[in-house]
Design goal:
alpha/beta; 7 strands; 3 helices; Arc Repressor Mutant, subunit A; three-stranded mixed beta sheet; two-stranded parallel ribbon
């Protein structure tokens, strides 16, 4: 029996989750689905330029698992670009990271919106 998949930590919520080629010779365009954790892996590695070890820590996975997620994401993306497929960003095994902030009163790092009553800090 395989091990259950541990949810990956995601920090970014994409505003647009579907991309379609502007010109297509086909009546029906094939769609490639990229999981949210795959998009996050590309964002951390390729956009933020982090080392794989740092990316893996931020996603709460091993470096090897991060490498596998990244390879899958890149393969799907290149396939869509080369073959003119639509891209859909959907699904996966993930949890969103709770953003933290520094409380203006206590100076301690806290979950957003989790300050003491009457606190002057309002993180958004």
């Amino acid at each position: 029996m395989p091990r259950p998949i541990k949810p990956r930590t995601i920090e970014y919520k994409p505003k647009c989750r579907h991309f379609t080629p502007s010109v297509s010779t086909k009546d029906e365009i094939e769609t490639v689905t990229i999981k949210l954790e795959e998009l996050e892996a590309m964002r951390l590695k390729d956009c933020e330029g982090l080392f794989q070890e740092d990316c893996a820590k931020r996603m709460n996975v091993s470096r090897q698992t991060f490498q596998l997620i990244l390879e899958s994401a890149r393969k799907k993306t290149v396939n869509a670009l080369i073959n003119g497929h639509a891209v859909r960003i959907f699904g996966g095994d993930y949890v969103y990271k709770t953003r933290n902030h520094i409380c203006a009163n206590s100076g301690k790092e806290k979950e957003t919106g989790n300050c003491e009553p009457g606190s002057c800090c309002k993180a958004g």
